[in-house]
Amino acid sequence: MSENRKPLLGFVGKLPSGTALGNSGKTHCPLCMGLFKAPRLLPCLHTVCTTCLEQLEPYSVVDIRGGDSDTSSEGSIFQELKPPSLQPQIGILCPVCDTQVDLPMGGVKALTIDHLAINDVMLESLRGEGQGLVCDLCSDREVEKRCQTCRANLCHFCCQAHRRQKKTTYHTVVDLKDLKGYSRIGKPILCPVHPAEELRLFCELCDRPVCRDCVVGEHREHPYDFASNVIHKHGDSVRELLRGTQPHVEALEEALAQITEMNSALQKRVEAVAADVRTFSEGYIKAIEEHRDRLLKQLEDIRVQKENSLQLQKAQLEQLLADMRTGVEFTEHLLTSGSDLEILITKGVVVERLTKLNKVEYSAHPGVNDKIRFSPQQRAGRCRGYEVYGTINTKEVDPAKCVLQGEDLHRAREKQTASFTLLCKDAAGESMGRGGDSVHVAVVPKDKKDSPVRTLVQDNKDGTYYVSYTPKEPGIYTVLVCVKEQHVQGSPFTVTVRKRHRSHTGVFHCCTFCSSGGQKTARCACGGTMPGGYLGCGHGHKGHPGRPHWSCCGKFAEKSECTWTGGESAPRSLLRTVAL
After folding, report:
1. DSSP 8-state class, residue 426
2. Tens of each residue's pLDDT in the chain, 580 residues
3. Hey, CA dihedral for 210, 212, 213, 215, is it positive or negative?
C-alpha cells in the first residue's frame, strides 16, 4: 500500500491577517500560549490543548439527542445508535471565538485530535534542535533519532534497543537533524478502539477511518477501501465545498476592506467636522467676547455720562444753594441788626438779588435715573459675521406717552376677533424699540363686570404689543390697558360690539333680467319691474336704481352687511338669481 498521497486541499487562499491563533498550521495553544499538547480540534476549527479545554468552565443544557452526535470526535465514532432521549448536554465555549461547543459523551477527550497540529509541533520542535520532543517509547529522554519505518521518535538508549530487536533490526533510523527539510514527520494514527492497529482503511457506510480489526468486527460486511484509494473522491468533495466557500472569504475580505476604508473616511470626516466646529466655536467665542467688551464699554460710557450729568447738576445746585444762603443770611442780618436808614439804603440791592434768586428754575429731583437694563434675548445685530444677542437699554417706558392704534379700537363684532396695537414710548416720546414691559389688558362688559373677555397680548419684541380678543355678545365693553400698572394714553375706553356681520344671500348684479337669465318670476329688493310680466328690475325700467346693487337687500356697496330681515317685503324668489 502506497503512503504517498495527493494533498487533500488542491488550493488554499491566503488567510486574513487577523486570523485567530489555534487554526491548523499553528503550533501554539491560544490559552496557555505554549506548544500544543494533545491538541483537540473544535467544531469551529480552532485547536486547543486537551488540558486547557478541561480547565474551561462547562455549562449544562437540556437537549434531545440521539445516538449520533453532530460533534465530530474519534471517541464517539464507534458508539452504538441509541433512541432519542431527553438528557442534559454538557458544553463549553471556544476560548477563541466564543462558539458554543457541545461535548460528546466522552467529554473533552472524545473531541477530534488535531493530527495536523501535532505534525506542526514536531516540525517546530525540529527547528529548535529537537528541544521539547521526548522519546515515544520511554517518554522520558529527549529525542535524537527517528525510525522512518515505525515513524517513532527515539532517544539514544531506545534507539540502540530498537536496533537489537529482530523485528526492527532492519528499520531505517535517521538523525533528527536530517529531518528539518521535511514537511510531514507525523506519527502513525492509531485506532482508538484497537490501539495496536493503525488507521489505514475507510468505511464507506460509516464515513470514517477504521483499522483491520474494525472491518472484521464492528464494521463487518460494510463496504471499505484503503484510505489512499478513497482520498481523491473525498478530497474532491472537500475541494468543491472549498470552492463554494472561497468566494465568501473574498467577499468578506472585500467587505472588511470597505469597512476599513469607510472607517478611515469616517475618521477623516469627523476630524474635518470637528475642525469646522472648533473654527466656528472659536470665532463665535471671539464674537461674543468682542460683543461683551462693547456692552461693557457702552455701560461704562452710560455710567460716565450719567455721573457727569449728576455732578453738573450737583455743582449747579450747590452754587445756587450757596447764593441762596448768602442772600438769606445777609437779609436776616440786615433786618435784625441794621438801622432803619441802613435797611432803606441797601433795600434796593437786596430786593433785586432775592428776586433774581427766586426766579432761578431748578429741579428738585436728580436729572438722571439708574434705569439701566440688560436684555439678553434681544438681537444685537452681527459681530464678526455671527448673530449676537444682548443689549443694554436705558430707556424707561412712560405709560402716559404710550399710544393705542388700530381700526378696532372702538368697534367690534360679536364672535369675531378684534385687535389693536399698543406702541410703548419713553418719557421723550421715542419708541422703546424693545419688548419685555409689563402690559396688562382687560376687556369687561359694561353690564357684566364679573365676566371679563379673555384677551391675548403678543409681545412683538420691538416696543409694540398686539392685543386681540373675541367678544361673545353684543353690547358696550370697557377696555383697560395698563403698562407697569398705570393706564396708558386713552385708557380706559369703550368699545361698541355689534351683532355678527350678516353676509348677503343674493347676488350683486346690474339687474334681475341679466342675473336670472330672463326669468319672469325673479324679483329684486330694489322693487323695480319690467313690462311684459317681469317681476324683477331691468335697465332703464321702472324702479331700477341705475347702478349695480344687491338683489337680497338693495344695497349699492358690494362689501357691506346684508340688511334683509326675511319678511314679506322680500320674497325668497328674488334671492335665488344667478350671476351669468
Report:
1. B
2. 334 433 333 333 333 344 344 343 478 888 888 888 888 888 888 889 888 888 888 877 655 444 444 444 444 433 444 445 555 678 888 888 888 888 888 888 888 888 788 777 777 766 664 455 678 778 777 777 888 777 777 888 888 888 888 888 878 788 776 666 555 666 677 888 888 788 889 998 888 899 988 988 888 889 988 888 888 888 888 888 888 888 888 899 999 999 999 999 999 999 999 999 999 999 999 999 999 999 999 999 999 988 998 999 999 999 999 999 999 999 999 999 989 898 899 999 999 999 999 999 888 888 888 888 888 888 888 998 999 999 888 888 889 899 999 887 888 888 888 999 999 988 878 888 888 888 999 999 988 878 888 999 999 988 899 999 999 888 899 999 999 888 999 989 999 888 877 788 889 999 998 988 889 889 898 889 999 889 999 988 888 888 899 988 888 888 787 877 765 444 444 444 443 3
3. positive
Q: What is the DSSP string of 377-400?
A: EEEEEEETTEEEEEEEE---B-GG
Task: State the residue for C-alpha cell 330672463.
Answer: 518
Q: Say how many residues make up the chain.
A: 580
Q: What are the Cα distances from residue 292, in Å, to 49, 388, 467, 549, 563?
A: 71, 10, 35, 66, 64
Which residues are registered as beta bridge partners of 486?
483
As a whole number of angstroms, the distance between CA 313 and CA 302 comes to 16
Whole-angstrom CA distances from 82 to 56, 66, 103, 354, 468 are 28, 6, 17, 135, 90
- With beta carbons less than 8 A apart as the criterion, state whether 227 and 202 touch: yes
Extract the C-alpha cell encoding 117. Answer: 497540529
As a whole number of angstroms, the distance between CA 449 and CA 207 comes to 103
CA 252, distance to chain mean position in Å, is 31
